[in-house]
Amino acid sequence: MRYPHFASALAVLLALVTVGGISAHNAPPQEGMTLMLAQPAVSADHVAFTYAGDLWIARHDGSGVRQVTTHKGVESSPRFSPDGRTLAFSAQYDGNTDVYVVPVEGGVPRRLTWHPGSDIVQDFTVDGSAVLFTSARAVYTGRHRQLFTVTLDGKFPEQLPVPTAFKATYSPDGSKSVEELPRRNGDTDLDHRHGGLFRRSDPAARGPLQRHRSHVDRRPCLLPL
Predict the structure, then answer these.
(1) What confidence category does residue 189 fall into, taking pLDDT thresholds of 50, 70 and 90?
(2) In a designed cystine with 55, which of 69, 111, 201, 212 is the match (CB 3.0 to 4.6 A)?
(3) What are the backbone angles phi and psi of residue 14, rounded to the nearest 5°?
(4) Does residue 50 carry a pLDDT above 60?
(5) Nearest to 91 by CA among 105, 111, 116, 106
C-alpha cells in the first residue's frame, strides 16, 4: 500500500468516534452516538469509510465529516486514487455489485463494470489510470476470485496473470502486488497434520489427518506483475 492504511485509518476512526461523541471506553451506547464506522481508506489528506451503507469522508483530524453517496444501495470497499482526488468503490446499484468512481468533492458515481457477478474494489493502479478489483466472472464454478483492472474510462476489464486472489494491493513502484490467496483444504493437495501443512502425497507426513473443509486459510503473498 502507498500509505500505512490500517494503522492510520484506525487512528482517524478513533478521532471520528471522539468527535461524534463516542467514548473510547466500554461505555454503553447512548442516543446520538455514531457507531459502526467500517472499511477505512486513507489518502494524504482524507480518510474515507462506510457508515449505514454509504460512503463518508473526513480529514485526518476527524473534522469536515461529510457524506459522499446517498443511494439506497449499499456501498463498500472505498479506495483513493494516488492523487487523492477520486474514490473507487463497490456498490449494489440496480441489483448487482459493480465498480464505481466518484470525485472526492462529491458528484454522481460513474459505473465502470457491468458484469452480473460481484466486482470488489481492491486498489488503484500506481499511475491512477485504472482500478484493481476481484471478481469470479472468469471462474466456471464461481468458488474463488481473480484479479482484474478496469480503466477509468470504463473499457473492457483486463485480467491479471494470477490464478486466484481474495484481496490485493500494489507495491509502491507498481512492479509487484501483495495478495491474499485462498487455500481450501478440500480443494487442494494440502492438509493439516498436527498444526503443520503437508501435501497428501508426502510419505513423510505422519499423524492423524486434520481436515477443515469449511475453513479458508488466506496466505499473504508478494507476486511480480
Answers:
(1) very low
(2) 69
(3) -65, -40
(4) yes
(5) 111
More confident residue, 197 or 68: 68
Mean pLDDT across the chain, nearest whole number? 77
Q: What are the cell numbers at 118?
A: 460481484
What is each CA distance from 12 to 97, 111, 117, 203, in whole angstroms?
A: 27, 29, 33, 52
pTM of the entire predicted model = 0.71
